Amino acid sequence: MRLLLVEDDPRVARLVNQALAEAGYETMVVNDGLAALASAEGGDFDLIILDILLPHLDGLEVCRRLREQRVRTPILMLTARDRVPDRVRGLDAGADDYLVKPFAVEELLARLRALARRHQEEESERLVVADLCLDLAMRTPPNGPAARWS
User: Fold this and answer.
1) Residues 6+ apart with CB under 8 A from 44
2) What is the domain class of 2-121 according to CATH?
3) Terminal CA-CA length for the chain
4) How do the domains of the chain map onto residue ranges?
């Protein structure tokens, strides 16, 4: 599995990258919001681990823009912002999960496995050809019968 790790603290990035490598993940590390956006738009990642407090463009805005562009890659927010309103903002911005620093590596890995399972199940229920997507269970576009097919 390929992961995009977006973390501006070199020490945290090194430790998380090492743990992910030991768990068998292939990880690309970037350290600012603009690089994260460019990498996520152009890369083929299975999961994105995204900090909120980033230079140039914060993680919430990165997440919002990716979702606006219909990037469906699961996003796990990994941040020191631990208040309930912070978590709500992260999830409302489009994150699939939210983990507060400091964290246990075992929990991070378990959350990544859970996100990957859910995403694989969702993908198996959709037929995608070029820019056309069909929900096989509902026999509609993924956003319902009124969604545009463009």
Assistant:
1) 2
2) alpha beta
3) 30
4) 2-121
Q: 111's torsion region: left (phi>0), alpha (psi -120 to 50) or beta?
A: alpha
What pLDDT digit, counting tens, does each position of 32-68 carry? Answer: 999 999 999 887 899 999 999 999 999 999 999 999 9
Among candidate residues 42, 5, 39, 43, the one with its CA nearest the CA of residue 25: 5
Q: What is the pTM of this model?
A: 0.80
What is the 3-class SS of 70-137, one letter each residue?
A: CCCCCEEEEECCCCHHHHHHHHHCCCCEEEECCCCHHHHHHHHHHHHHHHHHHHHCEEEECCEEEECC
Task: Give whole-number Cα distances, 120 to 40, 46, 47, 54, in Å.
Answer: 18, 10, 11, 29
pLDDT in tens, 83-114: 999 999 999 999 999 999 999 999 999 999 99
The dihedral through the CA atoms of 52, 47, 43, 147 has a sign that is negative
